[in-house]
Specification:
Distance between the termini: 18 Å
Strand content: 15-25%
CATH superfamily of the largest domain: Transcription factor LuxR-like, autoinducer-binding domain
Radius of gyration: 25 Å
Shape: elongated
Strand order of the largest sheet: 2-1-5-4-3
Structural class: alpha+beta
Order of helices and strands: HEEHHEHEEHEEHHEEEHHHH
Helix content: 40-55%
Number of helices: 11
């Protein structure tokens, strides 16, 4: 199964094992302020960043509801202070916030147990919030359940990440990534490293900006400054915090050509005249001449023989990414 489909199946199985009614899960990052030595620490973490979420047995507006009250989420402060402990909440507890009460009452939630980890080596770590519905009499989370939940999330985070990295590294030319709407590479970092690109290195800001542009236009983006061609796949569901599939491959000279220019270049190397190319493509000879000039400029060639040599050396780039 694809990594995220496998995660959905595991959450459904955990619901039966631990006895919860619904769940909210996804990939959580943390905004950080630099510590004295420049190294992020738990005390420097300032707020959450959701890189992708999904839910089990919850309405589709749950993420938006949480987003509006996230600054009043009582679980987040527990997680920030004690990342290796399961954070819990009860509707009947004495410490409350107006936003928290409004959210749990809206969805009929009686108790919550949330497990994740604060990690600085990944842009997003798996989190799982398990929700039991009901009022003040809802069953509390005992220590054995909390330990099992934490261990499950720890193993799932590692296994899903490894599966995603293997998928990214074995799809043929280039790599496939799972990227947040903000351009963060949540899965597939190992594949990027194989291309000589570190998503957490000095080019991080440029890479994220390029990802955002590709996602916005859902198409092929040539990033000359990064030496990459980035192709965003259409989103199946856009809930405001979904992950998107992005294909990344190294930039070659032919990658700089538009699809129509690539067609013209291929026909020119077959020995067709401008007139015959125009007839084949249903365009005017003048358009073919203009595109030929653009092709020569982009590929830095001056004749058809050199153009053919460049096309042969870059032949994998002539096919669309999977």
């Amino acid at each position: 199964m694809p990594p995220l489909s496998a995660l959905d199946g595991c959450v459904r199985r955990l619901a039966k094992v631990l006895g919860f009614d619904s769940a909210w899960y996804g990939f959580l990052g943390w905004e950080t302020s630099s510590a004295g030595n420049g190294v992020p620490s738990n005390s420097s973490i300032t707020g959450p960043v959701m890189h992708g979420t999904a839910s089990l047995n919850l309405p589709g507006d749950f993420y938006q509801t949480w987003q509006a009250m996230s600054h009043e989420d009582l679980l987040l402060d527990q997680i920030r202070k004690a990342p290796r402990r399961v954070a819990t909440y009860l509707r009947s507890q004495s410490v409350q916030t107006d936003g928290m009460l409004a959210m749990v009452d809206r969805y009929g939630i009686g108790s919550i147990a949330t497990a994740t980890q604060i990690r600085t080596d990944h842009q997003g770590s798996l989190f799982l919030a398990c929700l039991r519905h009901g009022g003040s009499s809802v069953r509390r989370w005992h220590s054995g359940e909390r330990d099992f939940l934490y261990a499950s999330v720890e193993v799932l985070d590692r296994q899903i990440r490894q599966r995603a990295d293997v998928t990214a590294a074995t799809i043929g030319e280039g790599v496939e990534l799972l990227v947040s709407a903000a351009g963060h590479c949540v899965f597939g970092g190992a594949g990027l490293l194989a291309l000589g690109m570190d998503a957490e290195g000095p080019v991080r800001d440029k890479l994220q900006a390029a990802m955002r542009t590709a996602l916005k236009h859902t198409g092929r983006l040539v990033a000359d400054d990064l030496g990459l061609v980035i192709t965003a796949k259409p989103a199946k569901v856009d809930d405001g915090a979904g992950l998107r599939r992005v294909h990344v491959r190294p930039l070659s000279p032919v990658s700089r050509l538009s699809p129509r220019e690539a067609e013209v270049a291929a026909l020119l190397t077959q020995g067709l005249s401008h007139k015959h190319v125009a007839r084949h493509l249903g365009i005017s000879p003048a358009t073919v001449r203009n595109q030929t000039s653009q092709i020569y400029d982009k590929l830095r060639v001056h004749n058809r023989a050199t153009l053919a040599s460049v096309l042969v050396s870059s032949s994998p780039d002539r096919s669309s990414p999977p």
